[in-house]
Design a protein that fits this description.
Order of helices and strands: EEEHHHHHHHH
Strand content: 5-15%
CATH architecture of one domain: Orthogonal Bundle
CATH topology of one domain: 434 Repressor (Amino-terminal Domain)
Number of strands: 3
Helix content: 55-70%
CATH superfamily of one domain: lambda repressor-like DNA-binding domains
Number of helices: 8
CATH class of one domain: Mainly Alpha
């Protein structure tokens, strides 16, 4: 299949030899779809969080100080909000701005292993509940790491293991 380019006011639509098509910005040559996908993802996420909090679009608009039409456009994915707008929306939803920044691709996804991933992926928990669980989990991990670096290492299943357990119970 031959390659073809069609230039429009909004960009250049190309069809490659493999039959895949892509629209790029005529002035920059960057893919337009990528920004739209990110905007749609963050919009869907904001809508999900708003619905979980049982807040109407109009209520969130007032709480966040963002106009109702603009917020609606963000949720539909037709507008990509700035970091400042995301911060205002996070405040209105009472979730961390970091959660919105990660969803929008502004920040990298924090790491933490399978437990942290499971907490973040749980749709039944609010962002606030997730953050509290992650904070508690991390504090336990730090505490255990500090304790293990201060104690002599013991081989699991050896005769020393009960003594180590007794020492912990005495503290």
């Amino acid at each position: 299949m031959p390659e073809s380019d069609i230039t429009t006011n909004s960009g250049v639509h190309s069809t490659g030899q493999d039959g895949e098509s892509a629209t790029t910005d005529a002035s920059t040559g960057k893919p337009i779809g990528k920004v739209a996908d990110i905007g749609r993802d963050i919009g869907q996420y904001i809508r999900q969080q708003r619905e979980n909090a049982k807040i109407s679009l109009r209520q969130l608009s007032k709480l966040a100080g963002v106009s109702n039409p603009y917020l609606s456009q963000i949720e539909r994915g037709s507008r990509k909000p700035s970091a400042e707008i995301l911060q205002q929306i996070a405040k209105g939803l009472r979730i961390s701005a970091e959660a919105l920044y990660v969803q929008a691709g502004i920040l990298d996804v924090p790491t933490g292993g399978p437990v942290a991933d499971a907490i973040r992926a749980d749709t039944e928990l609010s962002e606030r509940q997730k953050q509290v669980l992650l904070d508690v989990y991390e504090s336990f991990r730090r505490e255990n790491a500090a304790e293990s670096s201060q104690e002599p290492s013991t081989v699991e299943g050896s005769d020393d293991a009960p003594a180590a357990t007794d020492r912990h119970n005495a503290q």
